[in-house]
## 1
Amino acid sequence: MKPNPSAAGVAVTVEHLERRHGDQYALQDFSITLEPGGVLALLGPSGCGKTTLLKLLAGLDRPSGGRILFGGRTMAGDGVMEPPQKRELGMVFQDYALWPHMSVLANVAFPLQMRGLSAPEVRRRAQESLERVGLGAMAGRSPAQLSGGQQQRVALARAIVARPRLLLFDEPLSNLDRDLRDSLCLDITRLLREVGATAVYVTHDHEEACTVADEVAVMAQGRLLQLATPATLWSAPASSTVAQFLKLGALLPARRVAAGVHLADGALLAHELLALVPGMAEDGADSDDAAHRPRQGQVLIPGHAVTPGALDGAALHATVTAQHYRSGGFATELRLPGGVSLHTLLRERLQADSTVGLHIAPRQLRWFDAAPARG
Ligand SMILES: Nc1ncnc2c1ncn2[C@@H]1O[C@H](COP(=O)(O)OP(=O)(O)OP(=O)(O)O)[C@@H](O)[C@H]1O
């Protein structure tokens, strides 16, 4: 992850972290490193362990194995368990967690009061923090007199007021409507760059993760599936599971024979296999012998790789199952062989239930080898 030279943040190292509940793993052999000022998004289906990791980083939960280091100092593991107040954190939760009986200013000031700063210093810094999130004029109000978006800005001001080394976000925008979410997400992204704290940001929302983060960790069943920049994640998902979770397109069972990709019915989908599987040559699998060995796997067809047209000469036939107008085009659902759905945005209106030919841009396809058989 790219270091930010002006960062106030701390380097975070997570080594083989584990959290078990009975014999169930909420987190398993999880390792990750964040440079100071780096922003990491945790993305994954419900129950994959995102909140567990956040709680372990915060010191609200104790690992069953592995360790966490901030700037080379052990926070948890090896018999150490630093409490949250010793970790110099700021946290922002889904439900804002403001104190209703306190003014906006008093909410933001609270972490500074806990540190025993003088009253004028507390007031000055709390006001400054509110200005940063655009709420300088609302200092005297109570949280109940603010909208949801404004309350979350107060929570943000409170999280950054004590200049934490690490900021933790637990789905901070999921209670807000789409427009507000988009604008606050951009504001959080800007603020993170300004304050330079290292940050870990839990979300279900792919776009939010990619807007806010330098790198995204895709998780499933307590494990890290892929850690990559947003651009890499979208262009080079590491496995069919990641591609499926990110809804990158349709996955079809397929067979590679020499330079071609064939579907289950034998139809040739693409000729240009070597061009579409970067990395295959490097791992040695495509040495002269191996290149000609048939391989079973899955091919990923992204929505943007297909152009509907005549049935003749098309790589695939598909049925139009649904179409509706959306932002300058037609959001279209196509049914591919085997009943697999493919979603794509098209310029043209297609007739419902009609069969169309799909012409494929082979370089947009991705190949995933089937997992080797166990035993
Ligand atoms: N106290 C607990 N006792 C038993 N199992 C738990 C406990 N806390 C979490 N789990 C289990 O650990 C797994 C990971 O939970 P976690 O809350 O970290 O998931 P998550 O990715 O944050 O999910 P969501 O997106 O729904 O918030 C889940 O299977 C959950 O049921």
## 2
Amino acid sequence: MIRFDSVTHAYSKTARPALVDVDVEIAKGEFVFLVGPSGSGKSTFLRLVFKEETPSKGSVFVAGRDVGRLSSWKVPALRRQIGVVFQDFRLLPNKTVLQNVAFALEVIGKPRSTVKKVVPEVLELVGLSGKENRMPDELSGGEQQRVAIARAFVNRPAILLADEPTGNLDPTTSVGIMRLLDRINRTGTTIVMATHDDDVVDQMRKRVVELDGGRVVRDQSRGVYGYTR
Ligand SMILES: Nc1ncnc2c1ncn2[C@@H]1O[C@H](COP(=O)(O)OP(=O)(O)OP(=O)(O)O)[C@@H](O)[C@H]1O
């Protein structure tokens, strides 16, 4: 589903590369944690999948396509296959829970009847039924992240990328978010999650890819967090 083929990426010609000669293959339906010290290249890895950045060398394949060579008019179609969740939720503050999730479908031109049907379904899936009309600032951090996950998943993308999704949450709330991501993964969605959350990684026992200085230094199935910060 995702393949990095000798990928090196530098943000500028003079900068030290953020990723160096990375070879990673992620199959459809896998759940992968990206771990590593701050600045090791985790977010850069995710940005390359999403084509927010294009590799300086090597190729990134998503669903069989070399995303570095994708023409710009095809990028929206690529991004429709990928949901993204961030540490800071990034909800639209002036829209309700329902409107935040519906908006993700409206911008890609889904008919109103589809929006009306699928938004309540996904809000039920993430455990937010009954809170449809709240504003983001009337929700807890965990609930806000559930809205963000609903928004990322409402279009049923093949891939969900999560950059430190539990970074702003307390441990108990984080467990709930991880259960939700696990449930989404069980529907067949491939998940790649960058994290510093050692408890989460150790509890889930999924594949762990560790980066250090932009290089892959460990790739372990049913892995643990495995290094001290
Ligand atoms: N937009 C950018 N422009 C220039 N350099 C960048 C940019 N984003 C990241 N970098 C550099 O690339 C390297 C990798 O950064 P990246 O954000 O991928 O690391 P990370 O592992 O996600 O870190 P953290 O855990 O702190 O989020 C770092 O040296 C960083 O300073």
